[in-house]
Write a structure and sequence with these properties.
Blueprint: H1 16-33, H2 35-55, H3 62-75
Length: about 80
């Protein structure tokens, strides 16, 4: 795993695994696409995930996922 994420206090309990998954996906995309396109790729994945949750009737999960991505973007601000 590339960047070590230290601040998990902003997440609901149990969402650290999802944050690790997002970080791992970003790290792999960064190796292949470079940092700028990797951020774009993560944004697309984030938007797709919201649409899928809503299509499956799992709107209750959207706030949790938004919190995870918000933490990810805060940790990567300025990169």
């Amino acid at each position: 795993m590339g960047t070590i994420l230290h601040d998990r206090s902003l997440l609901p309990e149990g969402d650290s695994d999802l944050l690790d998954m997002v970080q791992d996906t970003y790290d792999r995309a960064r190796r292949v696409l470079g940092p700028t396109d990797a951020r774009r790729y993560i944004r697309l994945r984030e938007d797709d995930l919201y649409r899928h949750l809503e299509a499956l009737g799992l709107e209750d999960g959207v706030p949790r996922v938004k919190a995870v991505y918000a933490a990810f973007w805060r940790l990567h601000a300025g990169m």
